[in-house]
């Protein structure tokens, strides 16, 4: 009997199989956005068991378990690692149709050589086999990066981070992967949050002078200094998470006043919040442009919706979802404002709302520029759309309205070292889509040509676009 994850899995025709096996499969990985922990890479962490590496931090699995009515103690609570794994195994058969079912079995197959389907019945054997394999040097963090030929990994880091772990990684001759930080200044834009004042203090502490920030000008200077520091440490990417991307024009004087009111803990109007955010984003984008960075905008998540659970577990624990809102005007206005002053950096826009794919694909066509292929990009299917249907929708919108040949492709966006197979998943779906176009006569059956485009989307485009120092290929 053939296994579920077989050689031609998801490749439904001959052309798709050729594209995947002869072109996509061999390409290295350029993982330009993830949430891996630099400290774990620096210490070359070896995981004790499957729960540690697979279930800890994975809010996708947690949501599915809650959906099945599992008690929280088996999800994020105090149950033993073994009991948590057994409970997850029991849930897996009921995830059919959800990407979790695919991801789970693809990860078991590629990392552990396990082709049995995970369920209550097979759980014990799989737990033991995987835990044993996890002790192998090939399964340490560095072992995994090597196995999957991960040439670049961009972690997600606070502007105030010392980046000491990145420095250790860079000095370690055993780590071939170029691991660089991404600058994620969400808290700098969150003037309404009760901790904004503490954040500004933290930011002051991270600058060379350590001088207390009291004015907006000092605040922007401090952020600029930290962008410079990240750059020195190899950073070439920033990342922002927005509910919506407001764009409300403002001037320095107004925003300075709003900033000092925020520092005093005064209540700000929605308009003031948006003005501060818009103006600060223009400054930040200017820095990214100056350093030749890529600005990533993740837009459209409504977060921490379950207050009771937020109080218990905090953020990123599986209580975020898709926001509906208007984006076209503010997105165009924001990009336009940067473009007017020649300050628009290379930009990737991800949306959590797939009804916006066509709109975004059309908007980015307004801001492409000489000398850079696909300067403004639409990011791959993000989060709830990091699955077959989501990827096909994103690729279809991008290819119909823009140029898919310039697309920088896939990233894991994951907190787990077992997620590198997401690239394989994406590649199979991409090859199946283009292979089907060949079979249906919509593309020529010229494999060198179409295969070359596949190789570009899998790796070459990202390598060229991000231009991360030290890349050896
Ligand atoms: O795929 C889902 C992601 O990891 C999600 O948790 C992140 O994208 C995170 O919310 C972020 O804002 O960076």
From TrEMBL:
Its EC number is 5.3.1.12. GO terms for molecular function: glucuronate isomerase activity. InterPro entries: Metal_Hydrolase (IPR032466), Uronate_isomerase (IPR003766). Pathway: Carbohydrate metabolism; pentose and glucuronate interconversion. Gene3D superfamilies: Metal-dependent hydrolases, uronate isomerase, domain 2, chain A. It comes from the Bacteria. GO terms for biological process: D-galacturonate catabolic process; D-glucuronate catabolic process. Coiled coil: none annotated. It catalyses: aldehydo-D-galacturonate = keto-D-tagaturonate; D-glucuronate = D-fructuronate. Keywords: Isomerase. This is Uronate isomerase. It comes from Paenibacillus selenitireducens.
